[in-house]
Design goal:
82 residues; mainly alpha; 4 helices; 0% strand; globular
Length: 82
């Protein structure tokens, strides 16, 4: 298929609101990695994707910590996001 011109972050936002019942404010407050896992879990439940076993709680916690650090860096202007 043709590549979308809409950034993934925007497509994720729309899916969170339209498919998962988030409201715009809750999307803004949700850490990116948590929102991504919610989206992936929904997509797996719909049969759109399949996630292999292997992401343990410790690995997920480490990923969440890194995502939160990244989000803080973006908010503080230390990292620019297009």
């Amino acid at each position: 298929g043709e590549a979308s011109g809409v950034p993934f972050g925007q497509r994720l936002r729309v899916a969170l609101i339209s498919k998962l019942g988030y409201n715009p404010e809750s999307v803004n407050r949700t850490p990116y990695l948590r929102a991504l896992w919610d989206y992936i879990a929904w997509a797996e439940g719909e049969g759109i994707v399949s996630v292999p076993a292997g992401v343990d709680d410790e690995t997920e916690a480490d990923l969440m910590r890194k995502a939160e650090e990244f989000g803080k860096a973006v908010q503080e202007g230390r990292v620019k996001v297009a």
